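can u do me a favor
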């Protein structure tokens, strides 16, 4: 039921809101149906890409789309609706494995385009689409060749000396007036900004961190109780050994240190194995799913230290119990 935004709205906002630095429009086509978008060069073919029409300021407003080789869409390209395209790194590698893509003629959905640039490598997060899967053409050319796409997106940045929240409110007010939205009606458009995305990300990661902490605490408690039970069984099975050691001069502190060391070695080895498994999972996720995982040396050290601390804490009671045994009783034990 909403009216579509217009490409001209970007220029209107630039003129109406003094705090704006960049105001640009773009459209995109994502077609994964029976007739998926494709780009072809010679015998090489790439399908299921995202075709986006953008204005020259687009890459400045969204630095993620920075060009590694060649150039981005220019004002001349936009004014003359030129058939030029900037392709993602993965598309370039697939179509031109042994040659330079710049200046080559490709067919984008059957239409001839000249490759003028290649984006920086960006595979995306969590297996999703990244810049590698994009083909960007001038917005005027996109509008001419895909008139059925009516959704227009506006993107703007605020000047360094302006408040983002204030500029956001000014943009909303200007668009409401421009679109004749009644004063008591809700916006007939949506606005998303970096603060909203950052808040959402912090909420998600905060919840994940809390959940991880709860699960880890339960795991440490269960593991610690298991270590304590193992050490108590070990003390019971080695009662005669303890008696012999005490009879030949071992002090209570020696017995206590012996069993504490055994508990620490047990939990420390478990911590090291856990770190190795975690590092392996991180490497697999990075290699197969392009998830930018890293192994922090600080948290590796913290993990092993916590494992050792669990061994000391839960191993002290069995070790102290062994240290307090009467050597006469121990020598009688069978």
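np, heres the sequence
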């Amino acid at each position: 039921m909403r009216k579509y935004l217009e490409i001209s709205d970007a220029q209107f906002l630039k003129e109406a809101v003094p705090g704006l630095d960049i105001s640009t429009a773009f459209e995109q086509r994502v077609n994964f149906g029976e007739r998926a978008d494709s780009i072809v060069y010679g015998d090489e073919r790439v399908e299921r890409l995202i075709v986006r029409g953008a204005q020259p300021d687009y890459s400045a407003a969204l630095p993620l789309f920075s060009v590694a080789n060649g150039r981005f869409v220019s004002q001349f390209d936009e004014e003359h609706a030129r058939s030029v395209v900037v392709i993602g790194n993965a598309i370039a590698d697939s179509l031109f494995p042994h040659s330079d893509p710049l200046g080559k003629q490709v067919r984008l959905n059957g239409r001839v385009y000249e490759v003028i640039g290649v984006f920086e490598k960006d595979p995306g997060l969590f297996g999703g689409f990244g810049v590698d899967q994009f083909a960007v053409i001038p917005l005027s050319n996109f509008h001419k060749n895909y008139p059925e796409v009516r959704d227009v997106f506006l993107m703007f940045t605020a000047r360094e000396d302006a408040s983002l929240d204030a500029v956001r409110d000014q943009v909303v007010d200007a668009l409401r007036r421009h679109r004749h939205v009644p004063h008591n009606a809700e916006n007939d458009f949506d606005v998303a900004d970096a603060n909203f995305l950052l808040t959402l990300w912090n909420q998600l990661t905060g919840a994940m961190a809390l959940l991880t902490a709860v699960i880890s605490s339960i795991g440490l408690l269960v593991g610690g109780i298991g270590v304590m039970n193992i050490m108590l069984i070990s003390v019971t099975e080695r009662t005669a050994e303890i008696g012999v050691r005490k009879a030949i001069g071992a002090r209570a502190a020696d017995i206590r240190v012996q069993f504490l060391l055994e508990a620490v070695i047990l939990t420390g080895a478990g911590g090291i194995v856990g770190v190795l498994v975690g590092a392996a999972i991180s490497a697999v996720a990075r290699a197969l799913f392009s998830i930018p995982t890293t192994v922090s040396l600080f948290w590796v050290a913290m993990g092993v230290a916590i494992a050792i601390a669990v061994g000391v804490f839960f191993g002290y009671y069995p070790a102290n119990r062994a240290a307090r045994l009467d050597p006469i009783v121990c020598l009688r034990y069978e």
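The radius of gyration is 32 Å. hope that helps!!
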